[in-house]
Amino acid sequence: MQSSTVEDPKLALNYHKEVEPEGHHGEHPDHRMLGVIVFLVAESMIFLGLFGAFLIYRSMMPVWPPEGTPELELLVPGINSIILISSSFVMHKGQSAIQKNDVPGLQLWFAITAAMGAIFLLGQLYEYSHAEFGLTLNVFTSCFYVLTGFHGLHVTLGLLLILAVLWRSRQPEHYSETSHFGVEAAELYWHFVDVVWIILFVLVYLL
Amino acid sequence: MGGFLAEIVRTELATPDPDLVQPEMYNQMFTMHGTIMLFLWIIPAGAAFANYLIPLMIGAEDMAFPRLNAVAFWMIPVGGVLLISSFFVGAPQAGWTSYPPLSLMSGKWGEEIWIMSLLILGTSSILGALNFAITILKMRIPEMDLNSMPLFCWSMLATSALVLIGTPVLAAALILLSFDLIAGTSFFNPVGGGDPIVYQHMFWFYSHPAVYIMVLPFFGVISEVLPVHARKPIFGYRAIAYSSLAIAFLGLIVWAHHMFTSGTPGWLRMFFMATTMLIAVPTGIKIFSWCATIWGGKIELNSAMLFGIGFISSFLIGGLSGVMVAAVPFDIHVHDTYFIVAHFHYVLFGGSVFALFAGLYHWFSKMTGRMLNETWGRIHFALTFIGFNMTFLPMHQLGLLGMNRRIALYDPQFQSLNIVCTIGSYILAVSTLPLVINVLWSLIKGKKAGRNPWRALTLEWQTTSPPAIENFESEPVLWAGPYEYGIDSENEDEEDVEDMLAEVSAQS
Predict the structure, then answer these.
(1) Between chains, do A50 and B64 touch, taking CB under 8 Å as contact?
(2) ipTM topping 0.95
């Protein structure tokens, strides 16, 4: 048991400001960004596992997708992909803004990103409700729903992160040019979700 | 709890007929025994040592993410309670591997609870590993570079990498499995066009590295304990350090050797046989280095050292039988027999648990400020070692004779050996008593331990026992490499350590 965890909430609350050394040997070093990156490596392994399973099924079946699977509609998910991919760039504008200490700019760009993410999710719901097949029809349709659904879950989480950043940015001086870990983490997560979507789109829709 | 279930299993196996528990119940028993022992005993025990020792060894105040650490810790009891609660709805019966289609047919909700609790425990170990890796990489005191940190840190680095890469894939497999269970999809169900082999691939992609996740931390523990009690520098520091990484890497590409009998194509079997046998090389390097470390040392045969030596000998047997089962033709014969059971108990019990006890006897003084009693420690060791070998050694023979694992009924010709195993397991159960007595008694009445009762050189011995809040009262000083014991004449070395200790305490 690390006895110092007891004291930690107090210390952790000031995380985003410079931690003051008072009474400690030094400030608690900030490795959170590295932590996010390592976490995303682990996350990507989940997707890699799912994609791996998908590819094995694909290579085993004589006909892919198996016979009787209705054609996938490409228009809505295509538009959706463009929206999601471009949202990454929009989001980056937000981060550039905060690097110039421009909080309204951050709020503007992040709000647009959030709206684009929400549109993406709505598009996916539309696609689910209009698809002509169910979860249990065959292995392909199961994979389709599990992969897109699991990705959708990540988009939702990313959206919540963006909203959390927006909520926190209302407080003056919460984010500044030197300290905006939350912004960076949310952005990195969003890019990650984006890249996963590109792979997923190619695998499931195009191939 | 896990041990209790094992005793029921063994008692059942004392006779060829099902007379203590029914076969279904027996299936639940060994499933839960396996799961509890692996996910709630050995893996958390390794993580516990890591959480305690890493910051101390590298001179840090704490882990990189203390709050995350607390989250990971509290997920363990949650997962554990959830797992045990599955007994109320009919515990899972498909073994700790939960191969479909068997796992899809026996007890839906028990299986689902098993999946949920494994997902929780898996998340906890991912968060823990993230913490370990970053702490080791980023929070060492400035004077310590990678090649002068204690070997335990090296082995935890390798373990963390395995957890981060392997566990998510298990999570993916379990998610798909629960879709099969609940939503009626057929990823792994051949009836609906799915393929159970895919599950086996995903499962073993994690679960073979999981074996190394379980033993690597304890390789690290042994690398710390042996040099201290043999008063000699570790033999081949870099060899041991890099062989940990080699084991981790090779461990990721050997998973299909669990599936030699699953219709894996011939060329693939050859590949996995070769990689599996390659693992014996870094493991052998470690064993030789440890032997060379204690060779000619001033060995103090205290409990920690005894468990350390017990570890080397039992792990050696596990490793050797491992090379045997790595060979495809041999494995096809012994697959799913007691030979396998014997093999993994030698690796996991002989490997992990012995080293765990060695670590406990070694660091107990640091954790509590009191020494454990030597007499009780030796009784504990003797009982454990005898019980362990009596339980698992005959299993090799049982397996070669053809007794299958995971069965409650067997041919009467196997009975005499099974009785030996059962008696051995009772001795093993009794062997925990001296440990419990020892810990409780020593906590209250044990001899006070100073800062450094073993005259060891790694950083954790520079602070008070038990360590102060934030670990060190003053910035720790790296005074020597971690294993520079007895390099000059022994007397001089001992004085050096004491002198420097005095210096450190004067500063604080």
Answers:
(1) no
(2) no
- A189 forms beta bridges with none
Tokens matching residue B239: 């060899």
Q: pTM of the prediction?
A: 0.78
Classified by CATH at the fold level, domain B2-507 comes out as: Cytochrome C Oxidase; Chain A (1.20.210)
Which residues, 6 or more positions from B408, have their beta carbon under 8 angstroms from its beta carbon? Answer: B12, B13, B18, B21, B22, B23, B26, B27
Rounded CA gap, B15 and B417, in Å?
A: 11
Under an 8 Å CB criterion, which residues of A touch B? 1-5, 7-9, 12, 24-26, 28-29, 31-32, 34-35, 38-39, 41-50, 52-53, 56-57, 60-61, 66, 135-136, 138-139, 142-143, 146, 150
Q: Residue ranges of the domains in chain B?
A: 2-507
For residue A67, pLDDT over 60 is answered with: yes
Looking at the complex, report in whole angstroms how far the Cα of residue A1 sits from the nearest Cα belonging to chain B.
7
Q: How far is CA B416 from CA B112, B340, B386, B390, B428, in A?
A: 38, 19, 18, 13, 19
DSSP state of B121: H
With CA atoms as reference, report the closest residue to A149 among B100, B179, B321.
B179
- Domains of chain A with CATH codes: 1-29 (no CATH), 31-206 (1.20.120.80)
Lowest mean pLDDT among A143-147, A155-159, A198-202, B263-267: B263-267
pLDDT at B304: 83
Continuous H helices in B404-483: 415-445
Identify the burial level of A69 via C-beta atoms within 10 angstroms of its C-beta, where 0-12 means exposed, 13-18 middle and 19 or more buried.
Answer: middle
> How far is the CA of B23 from the CAs of A10, B17, B28, B83, in angstroms?
54, 10, 9, 20
Residue B294's alpha-carbon distances to B148, B230, B353, in angstroms, are 20, 6, 20
Q: What is the mean pLDDT of residues A141-158?
A: 88
Give tens-digit pLDDT for B302-347.
888 888 888 888 888 877 877 777 777 777 777 777 788 888 888 8
For chain B, which residues score pLDDT lower than 70? 1-32, 34, 89-107, 192-193, 263-264, 406-409, 469-471, 473-508
Residues from chain B that touch A3, judged by Cβ atoms under 8 A, are: 467, 469-470
CA B347 to chain centre: 9
